Amino acid sequence: MQFKTAFIAATLAGLTFAVPTTEKRYSGGQCGIHVTQYQKNENGVGSAYQFTVQIKDAIGDIIGGVDRQAIADRSSFGISSQLPAVLIVTAGSVDSDPVSFAYNGQSWSSSSGCSTGGYENGNREMDCGFAC
Asked: How crowded is the C-beta side of 26, counted as CA atoms within 13 Å?
C-alpha cells in the first residue's frame, strides 16, 4: 500500500495543472467605441444599416467588435468583447435618427454622449466613451 501511495505521489509531482484565471483581460476605467454607420441603400448596402464597431479599453486596446453588421430598423444587436457585459447597439429607421448604445446599465446615443460626424460617401463616424 505504501508503495502505491508513493508511486502515485511521485507521478503527480511531475504534472502541472492549469488553473483557470479570473484575471480580467482589459484595462478598466473609461472605455470607448469607434463606430462607422453605413447608410442603407448606398454603395451596395442593403435595406438595413450596417455598423462596424471597435470596442476599446481604457488604454485604447481593441478588445472586441464587429465588421459591417447589419441591424434592421429599430432593432438591437449585442456585441461581446473581453468586457464582462455585452454592448447593445440599436439602429434608428432614418438617417436623422440617433444610434443608441447601452452597456451594463448605462445608455447614450450618437446625438448625446458621442462625437458624431455627418454622412460622407455613404457613412458616418462616431466616437463614444463609457465607464467600464
From this structure: 21
* Residues 6+ positions from 79 with CB-CB distance below 8 Å: 53, 55, 64, 65, 66, 69, 86, 87, 88, 89
Q: Are 87 and 33 in contact (CB under 8 A)?
A: yes
| Residues ≥6 apart with Cβ < 8 Å to 29 | 58, 131, 132
Distance CA 48, CA 65 (A): 19
* Tens of pLDDT, residues 83-108: 999 999 999 999 999 999 999 999 99
Q: Which three cell numbers stand for residue 106?
A: 448605462
This model's pTM is above 0.85: no
DSSP for 51-84? EEEEEE-TTS-EEEEEEEEEE-TT-EEEE-BSSS
Q: What is the pLDDT of residues 34-76, one digit of tens each?
A: 999 999 999 999 999 999 999 999 999 999 999 999 999 999 9
Note the helical H segments in the chain.
Answer: 2-13
Expressed in angstroms, the distance from the first to the final Cα of the chain is 55
